[in-house]
Amino acid sequence: MTLSIEEKDINEVKKVIIDLGRSLDEVRRETSALSEKIDKLAKSVAELSREVGKLSDTYGFIVEDIARSFLPSWFYLNMDLTVNEFNRAFLNTGDKVLELDLYGEGCDKTGNQVILIGEAKARIHGEDVRVFHEKVNKFINKENSRYVIFMFGLYIHPTAMQEALNRGVILISPYATITRTPTNQIIQNTS
Predict the structure, then answer these.
(1) Are 155 and 141 in contact (CB under 8 A)?
(2) What was the pLDDT predicted at 191?
(3) From the centroid of its chain, how far is CA 15?
(4) Cβ-proximal residues to 133 (8 Å cutoff; 6+ apart), any chain
(5) C-alpha to C-alpha distance for 143 and 151, rounded to whole angstroms
(6) Which of 64, 107, 149, 158 to pair with 45, CA 20 to 30 A apart?
(7) CA-CA distance, 29 to 35, in Å (whole number)?
(8) Into how many domains does the chain fold?
């Protein structure tokens, strides 16, 4: 069997190869243009992420400011504790530093010193309570002082309430009714 290739067939194959080459060049140009657009998009997303981070930090500081003005009266009215102010603080234990959103020193109605340690978050979930409690418990010496560990939030998820009850963390929100149980635990009921 002999194979016969005509010049016409060869010219057709050449034409197809040339067309494929042109199409490949067009695909390369489009791919290059898309790559540039993706790079620009990635840079825009990175910039947006930085801006959102700044906005989140600002919002967090606003929540802390609300807490600082709200908490002294709340502790006085609900727990008979006098605290003049809350500040940001850093506890240094040698190899680690714990940053606290809300630190205050005060006294109970009998004059005993109380140290109040808190964290402010817009939204508090159960995992937030667990992490905060574990972090704070590594640094405090419960034998030398009376500590009140609390979290202040604008929204408190039901999982946070249960976790807080289990760990003895007080949850405070300006948008909730706080009641005490007969065992002096604080429970938050949102309305």
Answers:
(1) no
(2) 44
(3) 61
(4) 149, 167, 168, 169
(5) 22
(6) 64
(7) 10
(8) 1
pLDDT at 102: 95
**Between vectors from CA 59 to CA 58 and to CA 63, what angle results, nearest 5°?**
120
Residue 36, domain member (yes or no): no
Contact 117, 99 (CB under 8 A): no
Report if residue 23 sits inside a domain: no
pLDDT, tens digit, 9 for 90 and up, residues 3-38 = 667 777 788 888 888 888 888 888 898 888 888 888
How many other CB atoms sit within 10 Å of the CB of residue 82? 15
Region 43-63 average pLDDT: 79
**Element (DSSP H or E) covering residue 128:** helix 126-137
Separation CA 151–CA 101 (nearest Å): 10
**Residues 151 and 171 sit within 8 Å (Cβ to Cβ):** yes
Between CA 117 and CA 180 the distance in angstroms is: 20
DSSP letter at 9?
A: H
The pLDDT tens digits for 80-90 are 999 999 999 98
Look at residue 146 and tell me if it is in a domain: yes
Per-residue model confidence (pLDDT) at position 121: 93
Residues spanned by the domain of 132:
70-190
Q: Is residue 182 part of a domain?
A: yes
- Check whether 179 has a pLDDT greater than 70: no
Looking up residue 121, the CATH number of its domain turns out to be 3.40.1350
With a threshold of 0.90, does the pTM exceed it? Answer: no
Going by C-beta distance under 8 Å and a sequence separation of 6 or more, which residues neighbour residue 105? 83, 113, 114, 115, 116
